[in-house]
Design goal:
- By secondary structure, this protein is mainly α.
- It folds into 3 domains: 183 residues, Four Helix Bundle (Hemerythrin (Met), subunit A) (Up-down Bundle); 92 residues, no CATH class; 90 residues, no CATH class.
- It contains 22 helices and no strands.
- The longest helix is centred in the N-terminal third of the chain and has 20 residues.
- The N and C termini lie far apart (62 Å).
């Protein structure tokens, strides 16, 4: 896994320290948000490059997926043998760096909230990790009267993966953890409707603060449930699972905010991921993606997407697919007999479409039809405005 950290510079923390640190985050009872652990990890050298941060989060998700699967295998570079014991435990070597990283992230755990079993298991792990931080530490931690020092150290090393696994179970997956989570939703101060109302109010705003909140929520969901392994395991039925719906909705809302803030590349990326996860597109995320492709003038991508969902073209209540087909043809071929004929066909099926040009609104009592309002909310008007002359051509009789 260490190859995943190829992007790090020499000034940033050691890759083995980072792997231990991030794996340790998977042991914490509550999710530690990236906005908290990234600054703690990098101190003054926080990666500013978007691709570096993206790679770091992909690596984080990979580690969380391993935690959920119970895979706590140490990097092969952390191997420890009697023959090379002293050298492998020198400061700066892979195993001491890995253990130091994990110890650092375990500091996020609020020990006062642990029960006795959890506290004892965490204390045991921290003691072992501390012993592997260096050769001098090892002599203090693993000295024994019953057997020679090297044998004791190797035995502790061989048990390290199991010790990490047991700690993860006690802190995150034991019956005590599950019952505690159930109790939280029955506390007197827990008002689900009030919380949902407050959350909806926040998510309705288009700003960077809302994006950060959504990113944090997505991070929690991807750590606790929608891991890479989960996606692979349930690939064929993913979009039908009730547990997945909040995740899909949050990612769609994230894409919409990016679009509204004119971050079209980021919106496009999010929407393309959504359609891979949920190809049947029950939430009709393709509509926003249509608008992204038009804004970016990616006509081949738009044509391919329209063809993929061609069954919706010219269907009842599917104004957006047909309107996008019309705009796509006009943008590439201009006004000609074929595009004029297509325009007549689309307007005959969806006469309300011309209301996006601003005409006829007064006759409709000042309100646009629901289908047109949805189209505008999905970036339809923005898309038409980005193609020169398209709105004038749409409302013209020629």
């Amino acid at each position: 896994m260490i190859d995943e950290l190829y992007f790090l510079s020499k000034e940033q923390p050691d890759p083995f320290f980072i792997e231990g640190y991030i794996t340790g985050l998977g042991l914490t009872p509550q999710t530690v948000l990236p906005s908290v652990w990234i600054p703690e990890l990098f101190a003054e050298e926080v990666p500013e490059d978007e691709l570096e941060l993206k790679s770091l989060m992909e690596y984080y998700n990979l580690c969380m997926d391993r935690v959920m699967q119970g895979d706590f295998s140490l990097p092969k570079e952390c191997d420890l043998t009697k023959l090379h014991l002293e050298n492998a435990l020198q400061r700066g070597m892979p195993l001491p760096n890995y253990c130091s990283g994990m110890l650092s992230s375990l500091n996020f755990i609020k020990q006062i909230e642990l029960n006795i079993e959890q506290y004892n298991q965490l204390d045991k792990l921290q003691s072992v990790l501390s012993g592997f931080q260096g050769y001098l530490n090892a002599t203090k931690t693993f000295s024994s009267d019953k057997q020679d020092f090297a044998t004791t150290v190797i035995s502790a090393y061989q048990d390290l993966e199991l010790c990490i696994s047991k700690t993860a179970y006690e802190l995150r997956f034991s019956e005590h953890c599950l019952s505690k989570a159930d109790e939280a939703s029955t506390l007197p101060g827990f008002n689900r409707k009030q919380i949902e109302s407050h959350l909806n109010e926040i998510l309705s705003q288009n700003n960077s603060s809302t994006l950060k909140l959504i990113d944090d929520l997505i991070t929690v969901i991807e750590r606790e449930l929608i891991t890479k392994h989960f996606i692979e395991q349930y690939a064929d039925e993913l979009e039908n699972l009730s547990e997945v719906q909040p995740y899909l909705i949050l990612k769609a809302r994230k894409a919409q905010i990016h679009f509204n803030l004119e971050h079209y590349d980021l919106a496009q990326k999010e929407l393309e991921e959504l359609l891979q996860l949920a190809p049947n597109d029950y939430y009709e995320n393709r509509y926003q993606l249509y608008s992204c492709y038009i804004k970016k003038r990616k006509w081949s991508s738009l044509t391919a997407l329209l063809n993929k969902y061609s069954c919706h073209l010219f269907s009842e209540n599917k104004l957006i697919d047909s309107a996008t087909k019309l705009l796509n043809e006009y943008a590439q071929h201009g006004s000609n007999p074929e595009t004029k004929a297509l325009k007549e066909k689309v307007i005959a099926l969806f006469p309300d479409l011309v209301s996006i040009c601003g005409q006829g609104i007064k006759q409709m009592g000042g309100d646009k039809p629901n289908s047109v309002t949805e189209y505008i909310n999905k970036g339809g008007l923005t898309a038409w405005c980005s193609v020169e002359g398209s709105l004038f051509w749409l409302k013209s009789k020629n």
